[in-house]
Amino acid sequence: MAADDLPVLIVGDVHGDIERLFAALKPYPAELWRTIFLGDLVDYGLFGVGALRFARDRPNTEVLLGNHEVAMLWALRDPTRIGFWISIGGQQHDLDELRKDKPLQEWMRTRPALLRLPDRTLVQHCGNDAYLNLVSDVQSEAVAAVNRGTHELLADKGERELWDLLSSPNVFDTQLLRLERWLELTHSRRVVFGHRPHRGSKPAAYHDGKAINFDGGLSRSHRLHQRAAPLAASVGPLDQATAGRQSLQGR
After folding, report:
1. Which among 18, 39, 40, 93 counts the fewest CB atoms within 10 Å?
2. DSSP per residue, 41-56
3. pLDDT tens digit string along 115-171?
4. What is the b/e burial string over 16-27, where b = at least 16 CB atoms within 10 angstroms of the residue's CB?
5. What are the pLDDT digits (tens) for 42-68?
6. Could you give the strand order of the β-sheet that contains 61-63, starting from the edge strand earlier in sequence?
């Protein structure tokens, strides 16, 4: 069965905690699910490169680019950025391992920033419309234009701009008008993202399910991790995500 025909499994920010990732995926065999990682597989935890390799090699799986992957590639290209990268959770041994693995580097540089599913769900890393900074003509096919701009920046020492864009704060939980405009421009009906941990026991849905946050603070090494954060807050079927619940406040 082709990946497009499989039910969709969303995986929020892993941040190097491969042990919890394996536990979260145990109920979801790769051959039965189209798995989509929302980016930020690296940093904070000890097994960032391991998580990248696992996600790359898992059948029927796609991986989006997160701001922490950009920061790692930036540090790889420019040694003056290593200190900054370590300050945001980077692990020196991961950088050393990535430096030796050219195919993995190239695979990272070709990750998309946006992915639109056949049911018009848009999947991205941060819950923000800052991706429009990569689009010169808003009437163009925005998803393809954003992905082209992303790859051009990574190919031309543009990591700073991409880091700033992908580090933009999540706003779709509280700013409905921006969310609706973004959905209209991308011809989407809802958007799924991670980037900033919510505090719920399952993915946090806003505005009647038009925006869904799958970052439940999976990694025990992340500075915002809450003890006993449930695996289901970060990893689960898209069609079973919480719907119709408004956020009580901005996260």
Report:
1. 93
2. -SSSSS-HHHHHHHHH
3. 999 999 999 999 999 999 998 876 679 999 999 999 999 999 999 999 999 999 999
4. bbbebbeebbee
5. 999 999 999 999 999 999 999 999 999
6. 61-63, 34-37, 8-11, 235-237
Cα four-point dihedral sign 158, 183, 138, 62: positive
- Enter the tokens of residue 201: 């026991």
227 pLDDT band, cuts 50/70/90, is: confident
Non-local (6+) Cβ contacts of 97 within 8 A are 49
DSSP the chain: --GGGSPEEEE---TT-HHHHHHHHTTS-GGG-EEEE-S--SSSSS-HHHHHHHHHHSTTEEE---HHHHHHHHHHH-GGGHHHHHHTT--HHHHHHHHT-HHHHHHHHT--SEEE-TTSEEEESSSSSGGGGG-S-TTS-HHHHHHHHHHHHHHTT-HHHHHHHHTPPP-TTT-HHHHHHHHHHTT-SEEEE-SS---SSS-EEETTTTEEE------TTSTT--TT--GGGTEEEGGGS--S---SS--
Domain ranges of the chain: 3-240
The two tokens of residue 162 are 């991409």
Superfamily of domain 3-240: Metallo-dependent phosphatases (3.60.21.10)
Question: CA angle 206-194-20, nearest 5°?
Answer: 120
- By the 8 A CB rule, do 219 and 44 touch? yes
